[in-house]
Specification:
Structural class of chain A: alpha/beta
Largest sheet of chain B: 8 strands, mixed
Oligomer: heterodimer
Number of strands of chain B: 12
Number of helices of chain B: 11
Helix content of chain A: 25-40%
Strand order of the largest sheet of chain A: 6-7-8-3-9-10-12-11
Largest interface: A-B, 45 and 45 residues
Helix content of chain B: 25-40%
Radius of gyration of chain A: 21 Å
């Protein structure tokens, strides 16, 4: 099966007063049709910029995609004209953003935001578009869709608005949806409803989903594959179960260890990732995680480790000591 | 007074707390058309040295409860007894003195620090206002000491907030709260805005400070795993009321209220194997408006075990097991 999305060696940088920030620094990954891939990372790790680069929504200036290819269904999105790109956005690729309040137009009715997409992308007439809009609102679990169609975003709750965003993303039967922190602004019971809805729909309609999040629990519940980002690079990538049970990058290991968990006995003390997140304007040639890493050796200061196979097939890690770490972890688990 | 008598008396007692905000309409003649019942009858108490978690979703009244304790709101009804004294009946000057003993750490380390003030002045100002260290040189030394207590380089006193990361800023917010040597700190979502790797650092810092200075925390948060880690007792709020209150272990091992159960089930566990084996049914519906809350039990429209009676009578908190209080008529 060939990949639906194939990101190759993507570089996106921003020119700022403090210097050039390489927000995405040579990232490659693929997404298969119908697959759910999570991109995990902390603020500033480049996870959102990477997704915005796929949609070519990077403001230029100050941002620029300097290198790489983004093959979507075999076509390089970076080679498309602005008109062709507009047809892709909201057409073959749907988007769901974090803040449903700011990503819906406050002066248009819910109905108009749905029908506009259909009229633009499909050339549908008003009546057809409206029928489809009602159908879509029903699909995302909004009761009484005819009435909701005439309402404005401010008349809806946060969870409702996010449902509308999902409906907008689904209007043109996309093959891929990119969801950037889709539930971070929502309460935990509503978050559960929205994620259930999104993954249920993408599975049923065979839409691939890239879900960008910092919540490790959300990833564990919903993603088949995980990409972990740190300082603009992919540091680990693999099937979710492998990455969680046999992490091969010290950053992933540290992240998993630092969160308190409801399924485990209370710990006396948390085991945090020490130090501060990196300043992207002051990276040297070595591994960016080195200053916070417990496993760092002299080689880590000399060059950046490449993303290479570790453990089972499809599991990759960008750490010089990827194999040792796996063995050490297995040994420590055997002792415990 | 004997030592034991002091310890058995709660440090903070909240009785029948109500905070209703009026909703007004009209341009020429303002008239009240309704009210938001943000907090609608809340009772709890806190012992010295204890950490009580206050959890719930947005709009449940947890922050308003904290603000009433901080005297940032004047409650509609109810009493807040601090060390046995009703804080709302105190004369002004005594209230100021009490403010020194009760401090707050806010959620957002970006908006809660004045961007035009240096870190040293942010921490030093309350010390100066309350006249704790009148001598300027000694005050600088005290600020540097506070910074290092909070795990920051003392030279950060000369920096501005924008020169620091989110985690470092939150440490400044903590140093500011500590500056007045308080006994009691309201932590309002104090770690929610931080990145995962930084969150654990700050949680550890809060625990260290609690031990070192014998602090009492009211820990307001929506993240249940963090609350479980930090707190001795937990109160779950829904639509302005406490629906369940118990010791931390009891609440998480044996949740009784259907809302608490729904909240716990909604938290995904960072382990794909466990998640794959978990049958998961999200609670239906959304939180109703606190302007016009449902009659009877406020949770009944979303409750999986609601019966007819739940529509009519509001269940009171009952002590079903020693120290385990639940406001639900259908659990035993």
């Amino acid at each position: 099966m060939s990949a639906l999305l194939d990101v190759r060696n993507l570089h996106t940088e921003f020119r700022t007063g403090a210097g050039v920030v390489r927000a995405v620094d040579g990232v490659s990954y693929t997404v298969d049709p119908g697959e759910t891939v999570a991109i995990v990372g902390e603020s500033g790790s480049g996870k959102s910029v990477g997704a915005m680069s796929i949609l070519r929504l990077i403001p230029d200036p100050p941002g620029r995609i300097t290198e790489g290819q983004i093959l979507f269904g075999g076509r390089d999105l970076l080679g498309l004209s602005p008109e062709e790109m507009r047809a892709v956005r909201g057409g073959e690729i749907g988007m769901v953003f974090q803040e449903p309040m700011t990503s819906l137009n406050p002066v248009l009715t819910i109905g108009r935001q749905l029908t506009e997409t259909l009229e633009q992308h499909r050339g549908a007439d008003r009546a057809t578009a409206e029928r489809r809009a009602i159908e879509l609102l029903g699909l995302v679990g909004i009761a009484d869709p005819e009435r909701r169609l005439k309402q404005y975003p401010h008349q809806l709750s946060g969870g409702m608005r996010q449902r509308v965003m999902i409906a907008v993303a689904l209007t043109c039967e996309p093959r891929l949806i990119i969801a950037d922190e889709p539930t971070t602004a929502l309460d935990v019971t509503i978050q559960a409803q929205i994620l259930e809805l999104m993954t249920g729909l993408t599975r049923r309609l065979n839409v691939a989903l890239i879900i960008i999040t910092h919540n490790l629990g959300v990833v564990a519940r919903y993603a088949q594959r995980v990409n972990v980002m740190y300082a603009g690079r992919l540091v680990e990538s693999g099937p979710a179960a492998e990455v969680y049970h046999d992490p091969r990058h010290p950053y992933t290991m540290a992240l998993l260890r630092s969160v308190p968990r409801l399924d485990r006995p209370r710990q006396a003390r948390l085991d945090p990732v020490e130090g501060q997140p990196p300043d992207l304007t002051r990276l040297d040639g070595g591994c960016a995680f080195r200053p916070r890493c417990r496993f760092a050796v002299a080689a880590c200061a000399v060059s950046q480790p490449a993303l290479e196979p570790a453990g089972v097939k499809g599991h990759l890690s960008a750490c010089f000591r990827r194999d040792e770490i796996g063995a050490a972890l297995a040994a420590s688990l055997a002792v415990a | 007074m004997s030592v034991t008598a002091v310890e058995s008396r709660p440090l903070l007692e909240v009785k029948g707390l109500r905070m209703h905000f009026p909703i007004s309409e009209g341009i020429l003649r303002r008239r009240q058309v309704g009210e938001v019942k943000a907090v609608d009858g809340v009772d709890f108490s806190l012992k010295r040295g204890e950490t009580l978690g206050l959890v719930g979703e947005s709009g449940c009244g947890k922050t308003t409860t904290g603000r009433c304790i901080l005297q940032l709101e004047h409650p509609t009804a109810g009493e807040i007894l601090y060390d046995g004294i009703d804080i709302n009946t105190l004369p002004r000057h005594e209230r100021l003195a009490l403010r020194r003993r009760i401090q707050v750490i806010f959620q957002d380390p970006y908006s809660s620090l004045n961007p035009r003030m240096k870190v040293g002045d942010i921490i030093g100002e309350p010390i100066q206002v309350h006249g704790l260290v009148p001598d300027a040189t000694k005050r600088v030394a005290r600020v540097r000491e506070l910074l290092s207590i909070c795990g920051l380089d003392p030279n950060f006193a000369d920096r501005y907030p924008h020169e620091m990361s989110g985690g470092q800023r939150q440490r400044v917010g903590i140093a500011r709260a500590l500056a007045l040597e308080p006994e009691f700190i309201v932590c309002d979502e104090a770690v929610s805005a931080l990145d995962v790797s930084i969150q654990a650092q700050v949680i550890n810092l809060l625990e260290d400070l609690r031990e070192r200075f014998g602090l009492t925390y009211l820990f307001i948060a929506h993240d249940l795993s963090v609350v479980r880690h930090l707190c001795q007792r937990v109160a779950v709020m829904y639509l302005g009321r406490i629906v369940e209150l118990a010791s931390c272990d009891e609440l998480f091992d044996n949740p009784l209220h259907p809302y608490t159960r729904a909240l716990l089930a909604a938290v995904p566990i960072p382990d794909p194997t466990i998640e794959a084996g978990r049958a998961f049914q999200p609670v239906r519906g959304e939180v109703p408006s606190p302007i016009n809350p449902p009659g009877g039990c406020v949770f009944h429209p979303r409750c999986p075990i609601a019966v007819d009676g739940c529509r009519r009578t509001r269940p009171e908190l009952r002590e079903l097991r020693p120290g385990h209080w639940v406001a639900c008529s259908e659990v035993n």
